[in-house]
């Protein structure tokens, strides 16, 4: 990514660079049990984590490890069977614009033009038209989509739709942004560009991000902190203090390779010789 | 219909060409696929016309081969030389007079203009019943369905009755409707409205059940309350599926209208058919059949044109 050259800062420097808009997410002894065909299935088991305001946390794990369930509970779309999640001390009950969500599947409303999608949340909150248009245009510019403001989603590529979803989520000014494997279905180059877009917006707006992925490299590129989950439990929780922005080479430094090897081990893939 | 939309969107995702580095500004909109080339489309039209001509020829051929008659002078399979001449003038019998053309029963002559006026006036009566029945049935059926499917309990309680309703042999109950509402306008309209209403009710309930949950969840996480979610997400996303419901209900409306005119009605295209049957006028029934086909096709075309505008946002909207 030749484009990623400006602003070499460590995570700590980024954290100190501006007012933090993000909120603190606290999960206390959270459990989620599903009943399927008379059998109980523990999707999330006794998870307690605290995500600090402005932190960029990735949750990594294989399919069915409970990471998406965790995310849906943080959004409020699912209720925990036991335990509690709270945002800045307020217990989470149902969805709220405080907690934005970028989905894995396409969630952009196909019956609304791009600009109407981006202003949707603002409209729900009663922001006056002029103000919401200017906010939406600002975020469309930040994700390089000014030129498609009046387009139908059907006219956009998959990567562009993701950016509409990101602009929509950010323009609603959430305190916590939840991203559920948002780039799983886009090609490699587009994914790198989207990662940069999200990191830029995060650095500028300083909100808390909880990003679910099954891709260890993606987590190492993005996160301040990586939580590894398997079988509904947190099996590893580590800080990644590497300099930002992290170029592709940054993933090959000894520290990063160590992180990677250790996480893969937690995921059940023992590596030989450390990498 | 939302599922196919999502499927297609997925396909688009996977078939995305990898953008070149720094392509953000150079990104072009994905152009919707070009329609079928014009030449091909013309060939298809020409082909369709040819099929119609061949079918008309076959009808003529059957009339030549099979010369049996219902009664003297009334063939089982009247050829076009009869249908387009004597049959049209014969329909003047159903013109009630006016516009300077006297009715046959009042001593007027059987003329082409009289026949055409009869077709238009009775066609108009049928059409009015269809429009009134369609509107009433569509509005009531959809509203009830929206209320029912707006709540979890509504959906649960009405799931079974809805399935029953769909299999209900409504056409068999025309006499009952006529006893209740009479054989004139109100009876026919009520019958059409009920028939159409059932289709709209089941169509809307199903379409709402098929709404992709991701859109509803997206609206909720963006701060939309239930009513806004329903109006801005559920309603638009059922539109594609509603298009086929509308087409289906149109077919039902025509069937119900003609059928309701078979019993007791004093006007309408169905009335002419029933009347013709008493006297063995196969040619009149046949001509009315053709008139119905033409009128129904026109209504299909118009409805298709109008409703296409509602789904202009759909990928590959066709219609």
From TrEMBL, chain B:
Classification via SUPFAM superfamilies: MetI-like
Segment forming the signal sequence: none
Keywords: Cell membrane, Membrane, Transmembrane, Transmembrane helix, Transport
Transmembrane segments annotated in the record for this chain: 43-65, 130-151, 163-181, 187-209, 251-273, 285-303
Membrane topology: Multi-pass membrane protein
Gene3D superfamilies with a match to the protein in the record: MetI-like
Annotated stretches, region: Disordered: 1-24
Compartments where located: Cell membrane
Domain ABC transmembrane type-1: 123-303
Main subcellular location of this protein, as a coarse class: membrane
Keyword hit for Transit peptide: no
GO annotations of cellular component type: plasma membrane
Entry-linked Pfam families: BPD_transp_1
GO biological process, one term: transmembrane transport
Family: Belongs to the binding-protein-dependent transport system permease family.
Protein name: ABC transporter permease subunit
Source species of the chain: Nesterenkonia salmonea
Lineage: Bacteria, Bacillati, Actinomycetota, Actinomycetes, Micrococcales
């Amino acid at each position: 990514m030749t484009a990623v050259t400006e602003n070499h800062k460590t995570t700590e420097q980024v954290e100190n660079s501006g007012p933090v808009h993000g909120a603190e997410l606290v999960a206390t002894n959270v459990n989620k049990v599903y009943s399927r065909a008379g059998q109980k299935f523990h999707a999330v088991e006794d998870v307690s984590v605290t995500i600090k305001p402005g932190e960029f946390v990735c949750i990594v794990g294989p399919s069915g490890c409970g990471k998406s369930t965790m995310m849906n509970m943080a959004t409020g779309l699912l209720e925990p069977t036991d335990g509690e999640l709270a945002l800045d001390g307020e217990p989470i009950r149902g969805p709220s614009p405080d907690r934005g969500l970028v989905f894995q599947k396409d969630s952009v409303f196909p019956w609304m033009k791009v600009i109407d999608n981006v202003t949707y949340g603002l409209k729900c909150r009663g922001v006056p038209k002029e103000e919401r248009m200017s906010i939406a245009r600002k975020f469309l510019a930040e994700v390089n989509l000014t030129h498609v403001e009046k387009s139908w989603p059907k006219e956009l590529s998959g990567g562009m739709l993701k950016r509409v979803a990101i602009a929509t989520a950010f323009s609603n000014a959430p305190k916590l942004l939840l991203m559920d494997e948002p780039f799983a279905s886009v090609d490699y180059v587009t994914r790198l560009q989207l990662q940069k877009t999200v990191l830029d917006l995060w650095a500028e707006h300083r909100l808390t991000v909880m990003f679910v992925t099954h891709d260890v490299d993606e987590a190492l590129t993005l996160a301040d902190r990586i939580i590894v989950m398997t079988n509904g439990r947190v099996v590893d929780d580590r800080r990644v203090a590497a300099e930002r922005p992290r170029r592709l080479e940054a993933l090959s430094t000894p520290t990063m390779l160590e992180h990677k090897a250790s996480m893969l081990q937690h995921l059940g893939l023992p590596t030989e010789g450390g990498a | 219909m939302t599922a196919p939309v999502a499927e297609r969107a997925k396909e688009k995702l996977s078939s995305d060409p990898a953008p070149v580095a720094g392509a953000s500004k150079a990104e072009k909109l994905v152009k919707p696929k070009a329609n079928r080339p014009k030449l091909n489309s013309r060939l298809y039209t020409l082909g369709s016309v040819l099929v119609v001509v061949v079918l008309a020829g076959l009808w003529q051929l059957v009339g030549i081969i099979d010369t049996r008659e219902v009664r003297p002078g009334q063939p089982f399979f009247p050829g076009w030389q009869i249908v387009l001449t004597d049959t049209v003038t014969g329909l003047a019998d159903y013109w009630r007079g006016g516009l300077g053309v006297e009715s046959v029963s009042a001593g007027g002559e059987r003329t082409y203009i009289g026949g055409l006026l009869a077709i238009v006036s009775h066609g108009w009566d049928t059409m009015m019943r269809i429009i009134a029945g369609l509107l009433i049935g569509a509005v009531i059926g959809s509203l009830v369905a929206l209320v029912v499917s707006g709540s979890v309990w509504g959906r649960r309680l009405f799931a079974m009755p809805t399935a029953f309703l769909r299999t209900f042999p409504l056409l068999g109950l025309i006499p009952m409707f006529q006893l209740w509402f009479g054989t004139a306008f109100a009876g026919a309209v009520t019958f059409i409205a009920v028939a159409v209403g059932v289709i709209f009710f089941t169509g809307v309930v199903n379409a709402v059940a098929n709404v992709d949950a991701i859109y509803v969840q997206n609206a909720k996480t963006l701060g939309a309350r239930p009513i806004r979610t329903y109006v801005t997400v559920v309603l638009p996303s059922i539109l594609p599926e509603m298009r086929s419901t509308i087409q289906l209900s149109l077919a039902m409306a025509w069937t119900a209208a003609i059928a309701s005119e078979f019993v007791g009605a004093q006007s309408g295209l169905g009335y002419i058919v029933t009347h013709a049957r008493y006297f063995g006028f196969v040619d009149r029934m046949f001509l009315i059949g053709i008139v119905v086909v033409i009128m129904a096709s026109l209504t299909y075309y118009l409805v298709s044109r109008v409703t296409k505008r509602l789904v202009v946002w759909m990928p590959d909207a066709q219609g």
